[in-house]
Amino acid sequence: LHLVALNLPFSGDVRADFQCFQQAQLAGLTSTYRAFLSSHLQDLATVVRKTDRYHLPIVNLKGEILFNNWESIFNGNGGQFNIHVPIYSFDGRNIMTDPSWPQKVIWHGSTANGIRLVSNYCEAWHTADMGAMGQASPLKTGKLLDQKVYSCSNQFIVLCIENSFVSDPQG
C-alpha cells in the first residue's frame, strides 16, 4: 500500500479525502486513496481495510518500504519509520527535502495507537482557526504519530494512504 503526500501543505481546514482521491487520479494512480488522518467518522487505524492490514507492506511512491504492514504503524511506538526512506508527494517530490513544505510536520489527529483525538483534530479538519488545535508529528522524530499539538492555522504535510489494494486484472 502506498503512502503519499498531498502536493502542497494544508492548514487544519482540509477536505483531505477528496484531495487524496483527486491528486491520485491526476497522478494516474488507479487505486483509492484516503487521508492519513483520524476523522469524526473513523479512527486512523481503521482507514485501511481489515483484509489488507497485516500482509501488505506500506511503501513510498517508488515502492521502497516504510513499514512492514499497516498494523505495525499502530503498535504504540508512534509509527517509527526509517527516515532515510523518503516520503514523496503525488507529483514525485521528496517532502523531507523539498522547500514546498517549509515545516516538516504531518497532521494526523490521533493517539500513538491511531485512535481519534476529538479535542485535537481541528474540528474534524474543518477549521484553520488559530485557537483550534490539531495533533501532528514532526518528521525529524522519525515517527508518523508523534504526539505534538499545534494550532490549526499551521500549514503542514497531509499524507494519503492507498486504502485498498487492487491487483492488475491483466497481470
TrEMBL record:
<protein>
    <submittedName>
        <fullName>COFA1 protein</fullName>
    </submittedName>
</protein>
<dbReference type="InterPro" id="IPR016187">
    <property type="entry name" value="CTDL_fold"/>
</dbReference>
<dbReference type="Pfam" id="PF06482">
    <property type="entry name" value="Endostatin"/>
</dbReference>
<dbReference type="InterPro" id="IPR016186">
    <property type="entry name" value="C-type_lectin-like/link_sf"/>
</dbReference>
<dbReference type="InterPro" id="IPR010515">
    <property type="entry name" value="Collagenase_NC10/endostatin"/>
</dbReference>
<feature type="domain" description="Collagenase NC10/endostatin">
    <location>
        <begin position="1"/>
        <end position="166"/>
    </location>
</feature>
